[in-house]
Write a structure and sequence with these properties.
With about 300 residues, the chain is an alpha+beta fold. It is about 20% helix and about 30% strand.
Length: about 300
């Protein structure tokens, strides 16, 4: 049974990755530029977020701050926030768009039936997207209407995958649409916060390090995340873990709990860098843990 489970997991992962690659390929070849901006520097967005900045410092949820215990709080909060009679949400993603160490919430929408447009209902077949920025106090602010025109484009969206596509330390979204080409949403503007990225590889654990759990501590900021397969509908998020560090210039400690049961601790990692970590060996050259391309297949 374990062999069957492993094979099925591998098949699911391959299908998801292939779907994301096809989306990126289609985006690159489309005649219309699919790259859209999410304007986090918009004055209205910044004003909305700064309104509760002072209160957030005094009413922050108990640590673990972000992608661990607080992320479960975020998920419960999102169930209330995501009830919109005007939209039918088909995919969602928690990601730290402004690298402040608190995950934000992105939802993409699109109805199931084209006939809904002729039924004189509030819902539409093509619907805009929704973005909620984390206020660091257990609540989110809806900035969908003030974060740029890209989110307001009505589309029949189905899946969304998150990852740092441009290797600039910011999380991007690839949205798969039922009609037309996919859309790439790239955040711009906002505060210049710090970050680190961790790409893990198991030795005794599975090579992709699926289910490895990582705690990153920087000053008073503590976060937990886990390497997961899958994501939104027919989508696979990028496997490296991305942590926003806010104003902190280093990760004081990185605690890794591998699926094999092994625990590993890394200390004093400089911010704004990509790290590759192999189980039992610590930080290694990324080429050591990534698949090599056969010489005959190189272009």
């Amino acid at each position: 049974m374990a062999g069957i489970h492993t094979t099925w997991l591998a098949i699911r992962l391959c299908v998801a990755i292939a779907t994301l690659l096809m989306s990126l390929s289609a985006a690159a070849q489309a005649t219309d530029n699919p790259l859209q901006r999410v304007d986090l520097l918009n004055q209205q967005v910044q004003k909305d977020l700064q309104e509760q900045e002072a209160s957030a410092r005094h009413s922050s949820p108990a640590r673990d701050r972000q992608t661990g215990t607080s992320k479960r709080r975020c998920r419960r909060q999102s169930r209330r926030a995501a009830f919109f009679p005007r939209q039918l949400s088909r995919g969602d993603c928690f990601a730290d768009l402004d690298n402040d160490g608190w995950v934000d919430l992105f939802l993409m929408n699109g109805h199931v039936y084209p006939q809904v447009d002729g039924a004189h209902l509030i819902s539409k077949y093509r619907e805009p997207k929704l973005l909620f920025m984390n206020l660091r106090n257990g609540k989110f602010r809806d900035v969908s209407n003030s974060a740029g025109e890209a989110l307001q484009i009505p589309q029949v969206s189905r899946g969304v995958a998150a990852g740092d596509l441009f290797h600039d330390g910011r999380i991007d979204f690839v949205v798969e649409n039922l009609e037309g080409e996919p859309m790439i949403l790239r955040p711009e503007g906002g505060p210049h916060n710090h970050w680190i990225s961790l790409e893990l590889a198991g030795t005794k654990s599975n090579r992709l390090a699926l289910n490895a759990r990582v705690r990153v501590t920087s000053g008073d900021l503590s976060q937990i995340d886990e390497v997961r397969s899958g994501g939104s509908y027919m989508s696979q998020n990028d496997l490296p873990l991305h942590f926003g560090l806010g104003s902190h210039r280093q990760a004081d400690s990185v605690d890794i709990h591998w699926p094999s049961g092994r625990d590993e601790v890394l200390t004093n990692l400089a911010a704004d860098r990509f790290y590759c970590v192999e189980e039992g060996a610590g930080i290694v050259a990324c080429a050591k843990i990534r698949p090599s391309i056969p010489p005959g297949r190189r272009h």
